[in-house]
Amino acid sequence: MTALVQVQDLRKSYDGHLVFQSVCFELHVGQHLALLGPSGCGKSTLLRLVAGLDMPTEGQLWLDGRLVSERNRVLVSPHERKLAMVFQDLALWPTLNALDNVLLGMARVPLDKCGRRAQALEAPRICKIDALARRKSAALSLGQQQRVALARALTVRPRLLLLDEPFSSLDLPLKQELIAELSDLAAKLSITLLLVTHDPAEAKALCSHALVLEDGRICENGPWTELMGSPASKTLRAFART
Amino acid sequence: MISCAAFEQPGRWRMVGIALAFLVALAPALALLTMMEASALAATATFSSAFVGSLARSMRVACAVVGVSVVVGLPTGVFASVYAFPLRRLLLALLALPLLVPSFISAIGLSMLRRAFDLSADSLLSGFAGTVLTFALFGTPLVMFITLASARSISRSQMDAARLAGGERHLFHRIVWEVFPASALTGVLAGVLTLSDPGPGQILGYSGVASEILVSLAAQYDFAAAARQCVSLAGVVLVIGLPVALLLAPRLASGLLARDTTFAPLARGRAVAGLGPVLFTALLVLTVALPLAGFLQPLFRSFPADRAMREVGRTLGNTFSYAAGASALATMLGVGLAVCAGRSVRLRIISLVGLLLVFALPPALGALGLIQLAGASSAQLDPVLRGPFTVSLALALRFFPVAAVFAMRRLGSTSPSWAAAAVHGVSLTAFGRKVLVPWLASAALPAALLIALLATADVSSVLLLHPPGKGSLPLAIFTVMANAPEALVGALCLAYVGGAALLLGLGWLATISFSRQS
Fold first, then answer.
1. Do residue B178 and residue A95 have CB atoms under 8 angstroms apart?
2. Beta bridge partner(s), residue A36
3. Beta strand pairing status for A3-14 and A58-63?
4. Which option is the CATH number for B1-38+312-482: 3.90.1150.10, 1.10.3720.10, 3.40.710.10, 3.40.50.2300?
C-alpha cells in the first residue's frame, strides 16, 4: 500500500510548552485512521500540522511522497496539499447561503464559473442538502450545517479528508446517521480519512485503524481489532471496560 | 428585597430608561426646535444661494472622504487583523492619534506646509483636495480600526477554512467581503461627521455648510439664521445617517455581545514582515507626520516657548475641567443607557440607532439649543445654562454614545453569575456593588478617558458656549490661527498633539501591561 501521509519524528511546542514529541505514523491511501486521546493532548494540533495551518517545531511531514513541512517551515501551502478539512465548529460563514459556502471551498479548483457551480451542486446532492442551497447557513439546523461543512470539504474531491471532532456537538441518532453516510461516501469516493475525536465509539464506527496520543506521545497505533485485544492506553482501556 | 434577577429580566423600565436617556441627550435640540418661531421653522426650506452652495461643497467633500477612507482603510484594516509584523502594535497606536486631534489642527499643519513649499492655492494641500485629505486623515484610521475590530471577530477556523480553500489571497478577499458592509457604513459615518465640522474647509479655502453656520452666529450675530441653517443641516444628516444607522446597528449589536470565538492568531511570514511596517509607516507619514511637519517648520526659525507656555497655562485648566466634566457626565449617561438596554438584542439595536444618530448630529445643534434655553430661563439656572458646566454638558450629550457602546460591550460579556446569585437570594444592590460596578468600571474608565480626549478636541460647542475668558486650548488655537505668528500657532498645535500623544502612550502602555497580566 502507498503511504499518503508520512509523519516522521514530529514535535510541537508553543512558547516552550511541549504539546507532543516523537510522533511517527503513516496513513495509507483509502485508510481511515482515528486520532484518539484525552482533551488537550494535541490531536487537533497534529491535524493542523498535516493541513499545513501550523508548522512543526521538529520533524518532517510528507504527503504523497512530497516533503510538505519540516522544522519551523511550511513548504507546501495548505491550499496546495489537495486535502480538505471539516472543523469542529464547522467554520461556515453565517452571512453566506449553503451553496455559497460550498462554492467558497472551491477557490483553488481550476474550473470556470459554470463548471465550478456544477461541481458545487454535486456535493450537496450527495450530502442531501441540495434543497437547502439558498438558505443562509445561520438559518440551518446543526445537522444541516454539519452536512454543508461536509459538502464543502467533499466538493473539491480531496484525496485526504481531515475531520476535527465534527460530530462532537450532535445528538446520538444524528451522529450515527452522519457517520454511516460519511463512511459510505468515503468508500464511494475513495477518500482517505484522518479523524480527530476523543470518543472511541465514534472512531470505531468510522475508522479501521486508531492512533492514541497520551502524555505528549503516541501510546499505541494499529488496527482496532489488535488494539482492543490488549489496550495499552488509558483511553482504550477505559473504552474496553464500557 | 429586589432580587438581582431583575437586572437580567425584561421590563418596561428598560424602554422608559432608554427613552429618558435620549430625551436628555436631545433636550437642547428639541428646545431649539420648539422655541423657533413657526415662520422661522418654515423658512428652513428657503435658503440663500451661498448656503445651498456651501451645502453642495460639503456634500462633495463628504462623498470624497467616504471613498478615500474606505479604499485605504478597508484593506489596511484587514491586513492588520490577519498578519503580524514588526512594530505592529506601536504603529497602530500611533495611527489612532488623528482620531484624537481636532481636524482643524491637521488642516493648520497642511496649510503651513503648503506655504512652506510655496505651493499654489489649487495644490493638493488646499481647496477641495486639501479639505478631503484633512478629513481623510481622520476617516481612514476610523475605517481601519472598525475593519480591524470586525475582522478580528472572524473565528480561527473560518480563516483556516478560507486558507485551505485558496491560500492567503483568497483569505484576504473573503475577509474584505465579509467586513465590507461595516467598513463602508463606517466610511459613510465619517463622511456624515465631516458635514458638521467647520475647521478644515475654513482653513484650506473650501468652506462648507458648518462654516456658514459659524459665520451666521459668530460674525453676523444672527442667531435665527444660524439656528435655521443648523436645523437644516441636522435634517440632511438625519436623511443620510438614518439608513446608515439602521444598517449598521444590527451588526454592531451582535458584535457587542460576547461570543465563543477562538481568535485567529496573527499569521507571520517573511513577505508580510517586510510589507507591514512599510505600509503602515507610509500611512503614518500621511496621517500624522505630514501635518506635524507643517507645525514644526516655522518652529525651526523661532520657537516662542514663553508665549506658547503662557497660552497653554491660561487655557489648560479650562480644557481640563471641560473634558473632565464631559467625561463624567457622558459616562454616567452612557452606562445608564447600556444598563437599560441590557442583553436584549432588540433594545440594543434601538439604542445603537439612536446613539449613531446623536453622534452624527451637528454639535452646533445642541449648543444653539442650550443658548436658546439659557435665553428663555431664569437667572437661577445660569450655573447650569451659562457657565463652564454648560460646555461640559453640551460635550457630554454629544459624546455619551462612546461610553454607552463601551458599557454595552462590557455588559454583553458578563458571565451568567447573576442566575446563581438570584437563586441564592442576593439582592440587586449587593450584586450591583460587588459584581456589576467593578465589572463595568473596567469599561467606564477607558471610555471616560476617550471621551475626555474627544471632548478636548471639539471646538464648535466650546466656541458657542464658553463663558468669556474661559476658552480651551483648541479654541485658543482656532481663534488665534489667522492673526498670530505662524511659530506661535505651530507651537500651540505641537503642544496639543504632544499632550494627546502622551495620553495615547499612557493608554497604550496600560493596554500592554493589562494584556501581559491577563
1. yes
2. A212
3. antiparallel
4. 1.10.3720.10
The model's pTM is: 0.80
- Listed by start position, the domains of chain B span 1-38+312-482, 51-296
Contact flag A108-B160 (C-beta cutoff 8 Å): no
Residues of A in contact with B172 (CB under 8 A): none
Cα-trace Rg, chain B: 23
CB contact under 8 A, B162 and A88: no
Chain segment B74-90, per-residue pLDDT in tens: 999 999 999 999 999 88
Phi, psi of A69 (to 5 degrees): -145, 140
Residues of A in contact with B266 (CB under 8 A): none
Q: Name the closest residue on chain A to residue B178, using Cα atoms.
A: A95
Contact A108 B167 (CB under 8 A): yes
* Residue-level pLDDT at B380: 84
Q: How many angstroms away from the CA of A230 is the closest CA of chain B?
A: 37
Quick check: B165 and A108 CB within 8 A? yes
Which chain A residues are within 8 Å of B161, Cβ to Cβ? 85, 87, 91, 104-105, 152
Nearest to residue B319, comparing CAs of B202, B441, B461?
B461
One-letter identity of residue A27: L
For residue B34, pLDDT over 90 is answered with no
Give the right CATH number for B51-296 from 3.40.50.880, 1.10.3720.10, 3.40.309.10, 3.40.50.1110.
Answer: 1.10.3720.10
| Contact criterion met (CB < 8 Å) for A84 and B163 | no
Structural domain spans, chain A? 93-157
The span from the CA of B397 to the CA of B461, in Å, is 11
- Mark yes or no for CB contact A77/B167 under 8 Å: yes
Total residues found in chain A within this entry: 242
Q: From CA A212, how far away is CA A1, in angstroms rounded? A: 22
Q: Are A202 and A82 in contact (CB under 8 A)?
A: no
- Average of pLDDT values for B172-176? 93
B270 CB neighbours in chain A (<8 A) are none
Query: Cβ of B161 and A87 within 8 Å?
Result: yes
Residues of A in contact with B165 (CB under 8 A): 79, 104-108, 156
The rounded distance, in Å, linking the Cα atoms of B378 and B423 is 52
H/E stretch holding A221 reads strand A217-223
* Closest to B147 (Cα-Cα) out of B240, B90, B253, B69: B69
Q: How many CB atoms lie within 10 A of CB B8?
A: 15
Same CATH topology for B1-38+312-482 and B51-296?
A: yes
Given a cut of 90, whether residue A152 has pLDDT beyond it is no
C-alpha cell at B104: 482643524
Residue that has been written with the C-alpha cell 447573576 in this structure: B418
Of B36-45, B76-85, B378-387, B464-473, highest mean pLDDT: B76-85
